[in-house]
Specification:
Number of helices: 6
Helix content: 10-25%
Order of helices and strands: EHEEHEEEHEEEHEEEHEHEE
Shape: globular
Strand order of the largest sheet: 1-4-5-6-7-15-8-14-13-11-10-9
Oligomer: single chain
CATH superfamily of the largest domain: Gcn5-related N-acetyltransferase (GNAT)
Number of strands: 15
Radius of gyration: 20 Å
Structural class: alpha+beta
Length: 354
């Protein structure tokens, strides 16, 4: 049985998410209690669907749609999010029912593009975009890296130099808007509106970088999703053991926070905007140092820097303790006759708020 969810169903869906781990090397669940709908509501309009077997919830999916940049124009983007199917229902018709419902929403709302972001380790989800279970075939668009740096105080020996960084304040709104607009200008599917600063939610933190002569050269904006989404560890992977040992040593030295035990919350700030003029590794290095120090002081475990695989900044990241998780963006243009004015193949994916 398939039906659309209402706000009264949020507690049940949140509990279902807690029972359905995700794999990115480390196994974790997303805790979106008490308001499951709060996260997609931050990004646009949405409708969530539930599928049941013998009165038991075995799957969910959400159709999210919003306006996004497409070069000098805008486009209506439909995103498939919150797709979860219980192990007992995989291989059956649950996913097909969910994706048919999601696609019907996108048709009714006349979206221009349908996209879906899939983690590289989530091989079971590839059937979602293959055109066999409720959606048209989605083509590969771009790979993205989420680089998880351990939040810590960087010893002066390794810190960036020749660039000064400070936290953004209210009077920096116009400068921050300018730098964010420059960053988004080369990306398809980027937000259609500039970041409001200071943000009314109070969940964004930003740093600005300046050359020695005072010229602005970069900005880093991080999002703290704790009120609407918390990551709870189920178990760590064996591959993470060296990193866990390093963090344990750093924590004993007062340079980092201990990693959470299973079922505890993994504190994470995720990048919303990485804006660096001239693809300058020094600038990115200095911004990251400032954000890492602020994150550890706030009790966070990790700073997640999200970058396209094609972004030159990915090669400029400093060699601090980290782990990298990859995901791929797939898309389908509902009207292939539409001509895009966008000069670049680079796309934007909102990896901070997934």
């Amino acid at each position: 049985m398939l039906r659309e969810a209402t706000a009264a169903d949020w507690p049940q869906i949140a509990e279902f998410f807690l029972a359905t781990p995700l794999q990115s090397g480390t196994s974790f669940v997303l805790d979106r209690r008490p308001d499951f709908g709060a996260l997609p509501a931050l990004r646009g309009q949405f409708r969530t669907f539930m599928v049941f077997q013998r009165q038991r919830l075995v799957g969910t999916a959400t159709a999210l749609w919003h306006v996004a940049r497409d070069g000098v124009d805008t486009t209506t983007l439909g995103e498939v999010i919150d797709l979860r199917v219980a192990p007992c229902a995989r291989g059956g018709r649950a996913i097909s029912h969910l994706l048919h419902a999601v696609y019907a929403v996108f048709v009714a709302e006349c979206v221009d593009w349908i996209v879906c972001l899939i983690g590289k380790n989530n091989r079971a989800a590839i059937s979602t975009v293959a055109g066999r279970v409720g959606l048209p075939r989605l083509e590969f668009l771009e790979d993205f890296a989420s680089v998880h740096f351990i939040a810590g105080r960087i010893p002066r020996l390794f810190a960036a130099s020749r660039v000064s960084v400070r936290a953004a304040v209210a009077s920096d709104a116009s400068l921050l808007t300018e730098l964010c607009a420059e960053s988004y200008a080369t990306l398809r599917f980027a937000p259609s509106e500039s970041l409001e600063w200071p943000h009314p939610t109070g969940r964004y933190r930003a740093w600005l970088a300046f050359e020695t002569d005072g010229t602005p050269c970069g900005a880093l904006v991080m999002w703290d999703g704790e009120p609407v989404r918390r990551l709870r560890i189920v178990r760590y992977s064996a591959a993470d053991l060296p990193l866990r040992i390093a963090v344990g040593v750093a924590a004993r030295l007062g340079m980092a926070n201990p990693l959470p035990a299973p079922n505890e919350v993994f504190g994470l700030w995720a990048s919303s905007v990485v804006a660096v003029r001239h693809d300058d590794g020094r600038t990115l290095h200095a911004l990251l140092d400032a954000a890492l120090a602020a994150a550890v002081a706030a009790g966070q475990n990790v700073l997640q820097i999200n970058l396209s695989a094609q972004d030159p900044l990915l090669r400029c990241l400093p060699p601090y303790p980290r782990s990298t998780y990859w995901s791929s963006l797939y898309g389908y243009q509902r009207d292939p006759g539409l001509i895009s004015h966008h000069p670049s193949k680079r796309h934007h994916a909102d990896l901070a708020r997934v």
